[in-house]
Amino acid sequence: MLGIETSCDETAVAVVSSDRQVLAHVLHSQHEDHRPFGGVVPEIAARSHVERLDTMIGQAMAQAELDFGDLDGIAATAGPGLVGGVMVGLVEAKAIAAVHKLPLIAVNHLEGHALTARLTGEVTFPYLLLLVSGGHCQLLVVEEVGAYQKLGGTIDDAAGEAFDKTAKLLGLGFPGGPAVERAAADGRPDRFALPRPMTGRDDCEFSFSGLKTAVRQTLENLPAPDQQDIADLAASFQQAVADILVERTGRAAEIFRQGWPQGRHLVVAGGVAANTTLRDALDGLARASDLELVVPPARLCTDNGVMIAWAGIERLQRGLQDPLDVPARARWPLAA
Ligand code: KG4
Ligand code: ZN
Question: Which candidate, 241, 245, 230, places its Cα nearest to that of 188?
Answer without folding.
Answer: 230
